[in-house]
Specification:
Chain lengths: 347, 326
């Protein structure tokens, strides 16, 4: 890729997603033995599509997104499977080639904006620095563009804020700055790892709306990692539910969250308080703890906590397979929830 | 707010003055407890008791200790550090002649120490727990546990005796030319730098390892910045506080080390002079030198203190937030 000319926003060929992950396995060497944080995950992200990844803490969401971005590489863990970005094999790239993509083609917004921003460098400078990845942009132009970006992400008095340091801003403002940095060079793929978890509930919604807007206007493919089903339900198009490093269920948000098939997804949904009319029920938290990833249980990893486990669950791994009626809705369960009203609910 | 700031500075100066007073009096009274009489040492064993007594009263040594201290302190406050018993030379003049040599020696040793420690710390932090890191820490440990004079002797043996690159001994002033001047300082500076290098590498490596774990470094990586830029623009500055503190403390220690190094290499600096003055029980001169050394130490550390908020502006705002307490 020539550095001087910004890559035009080419839409992926029909059928070829922006990001394609196949059978990804990420295994860390730990003192207790190999730990499989991600175990056979496949995932597609198209341009302009917002893909959610949900699961309890420790289910491998961060490891998955950091590996998919290439930040976690073969030096840090044993990795197998396929990661293709715009048809290019990310795992086969050199450090230099991957660095070339970061901040220009692929970007990430992290969980804690205070610790993500440099404590000393003024925030304007931190945006300019990213913009200057494009050698065609001189200092003055980069500065002007940085001010535009601050404006774009909704930071008032950009001129004055330019020289502020991270600790002088509110949590929401900090995350807006992080987003400005992430979208500075109009990436085609954006990872957001629990981008609102560290923020007040009131600020959360506005930040999530900002993501929606940016994805729509810049047609960015977004991978939104969250442990909050509500966030995913409102702000993504497709979702993958992760449990103990594996995909439990994936498909369009409407299908997965309205008619969950795999029992873990249903349990997750039952665990959140809902105020929808007609569905009022007390939240039922999932009992037990997520499994130890060094010595995971055989069969379905959710089996020890599952109220619907059958004999097969404890000795055979359930395969992630499309459901018969909705082919782009896949789940891995031996005893799935049945939805007689399914076709109605799912339009 | 400005008055608060003035008050803070005023308090600081007062505190420094108090430290210096305590150091001077400790030094004065402990010297007077030492056995040995300067008059006797000056005149030699063959002198009569009368001659010694006459000299003692000439030098004011027969006065009570307290009175001598008061007299000396009065002089100091007027900028007069007194005169050496041995040479009759004023201590201020001794300082004017000898301080530049020592200051230059220390500065040169610090340039060498930092010049090696900063890259060594960066490499070790990036390659932590690899062979490179372990090799570096072995070097650091060796440097830390080898006394300066041993390094000095080894340097003399290799670089002077065997290779003949530098003179083994003696000092060449600037007037002899830059080459000879630096040649006469380089080996003592290296000998003096060993300990500082080791301390600096350890402190900076530890702080860098901590910084490199921070989220903002991961963010810098995700921006696609080069390792060089991440190291120098993102990681180094937040890692400098420990190093600055260490420099302040080390420079104070170094003045002690110059006694050995200057004597070994025959450099006419303050350390060498101080060694001579202590041996001769030249109270006035020892007093004067110690006071100046202590002042330098205190000033260096005050400077480090002032530099903290420049290195890391978060400290300035947290100080303001604390309402300017100290
Ligand atoms: N560098 C690492 N070394 C060893 N284990 C790791 C490392 N990073 C993550 N893990 C483990 O991988 C699992 C998944 O972690 P993570 O992806 O952070 O979970 P999530 O983001 O879903 O909360 C956890 O059990 C965690 O302890
Ligand atoms: S496979 Fe069995 S244990 Fe796993 S979620 Fe389905 S029913 Fe429960
Ligand atoms: Mg996480």
């Amino acid at each position: 890729m020539s550095a001087a000319v910004p890559t035009p926003a080419v839409l992926p060929e029909p059928g070829e997603p922006l990001l394609r992950v196949r059978d990804l396995v990420v295994e860390f060497r730990t003192a207790n033995g190999p730990l499989r944080a991600v175990d056979g995950v496949s995932l597609d992200v198209a341009r302009g599509q917002r893909v959610g990844i949900v699961g309890e803490s420790g289910s491998g969401k961060s490891v998955l997104s950091r590996t998919a971005m290439g930040l976690l590489g073969r030096k840090d863990a044993r990795i197998s499977g396929e990661i293709t970005f715009r048809g290019r094999d990310l795992l086969a790239m050199s450090d230099k080639q991957r660095r070339e993509l970061w901040g220009r083609e692929i970007a990430m917004v992290f969980q804690d904006p205070l610790s993500s921003l440099h404590p000393i460098t003024p925030i304007g400078q931190q945006i300019v620095e990213t913009l200057r990845r494009d050698p065609a942009l001189d200092k003055a132009k980069a500065r002007a563009r940085a001010l535009e970006l601050l404006d774009l992400v909704g930071i008032p008095q950009a001129e004055r804020r330019f020289r502020s340091r991270a600790h002088e801003l509110s949590g929401g403002m900090r995350q807006r700055v992080m987003i400005a940095i992430a979208v500075a060079n109009s990436p085609s793929l954006l990872f957001a790892d629990e981008p609102t978890t560290a923020l007040d509930v009131t600020v959360q919604a506005r930040i999530l709306e900002l993501f929606d807007e940016l994805c729509r206007e810049l047609s960015i493919g977004l991978v939104m990692v969250s442990h909050d089903l509500g966030v995913v339900a409102r702000h993504t198009d497709a979702v993958s539910v992760m449990y103990a490093g594996r995909i439990a269920e994936q498909g369009r948000v409407d299908d997965v969250l309205r008619s969950p098939r795999m029992r873990y997804t249903s349990a997750l949904l039952a665990a959140i308080p809902r105020i929808e009319p007609g569905r009022r029920a007390l939240p039922r938290p999932i009992g037990g703890l997520p499994p130890d990833l060094v010595n995971p249980p055989a069969g379905c990893r959710f089996a020890p906590r599952c109220a619907h486990a059958v004999a097969a669950c404890t000795d055979q791994v359930p395969v992630l397979e499309p459901s018969a009626d909705v082919p782009d809705h896949a789940f891995a369960c031996w005893n799935p929830t049945e939805h007689p009203d399914r076709t109605e609910v799912a339009r | 707010m400005n008055r608060a700031r003035l008050l803070r500075i005023g308090l600081k100066v007062l505190r420094l003055a108090a430290v210096l007073l305590v150091v001077s009096s400790l030094c004065f009274f402990s010297l007077s407890l030492l056995p040995g009489d300067p008059a006797r040492l000056m005149l030699g064993d063959t002198a009569t008791d009368e001659a010694v007594a006459t000299l003692r009263s000439q030098l004011g040594l027969d006065l009570p200790t307290m009175e001598r201290f008061g007299h000396w302190l009065g002089g100091v406050l007027q900028g007069d550090l007194g005169e050496s018993y041995r040479t009759g030379q004023s201590v201020t003049q001794v300082l004017a002649e000898r301080a530049p040599v020592t200051v230059e020696l220390i500065v040169l040793s610090q340039v060498i120490a930092l010049g090696l420690a900063v890259p060594a710390a960066i490499v070790a932090a990036h390659r932590r727990r690899t062979g490179t890191d372990r090799a570096l820490s072995l070097w650091v440990f060796t440097a830390l546990s080898t006394p300066d004079f041993v390094v000095g002797v080894v340097l003399i043996w290799i670089l002077s005796v065997h290779l003949g690159w530098f003179p083994a001994n003696g000092y060449a002033p600037w007037s002899d030319g830059v080459g000879p001047h630096l040649s006469s300082l380089i080996m003592p500076a290296i000998a003096l730098a060993g300990t500082s290098f080791a301390l600096y590498q350890r402190v900076l490596r530890a702080d860098l390892v901590e910084t490199l774990r921070q989220d903002y470094i991961e963010v810098a990586r995700a921006k696609g910045l080069s390792l060089t830029r991440i190291t120098f623009r993102h990681a180094l500055r937040p890692s400098l506080l420990g190093l600055s503190t260490q420099i302040g403390v080390t420079v104070g220690m170094l003045i002690g080390s110059t006694v050995v190094v200057e004597s070994l290499f025959g450099l006419p600096g303050i350390g060498d002079e101080l060694a001579g003055a202590v041996t001769a029980r030249d109270y006035v001169e020892v007093q004067g030198l110690v006071l100046v050394i202590a002042t330098c130490f205190v000033l260096v550390n005050a400077l480090v203190d002032v530099l903290y908020p420049v290195i890391d502006p978060r400290l300035a705002s947290s100080r303001r937030a604390r309402g300017g307490a100290r």
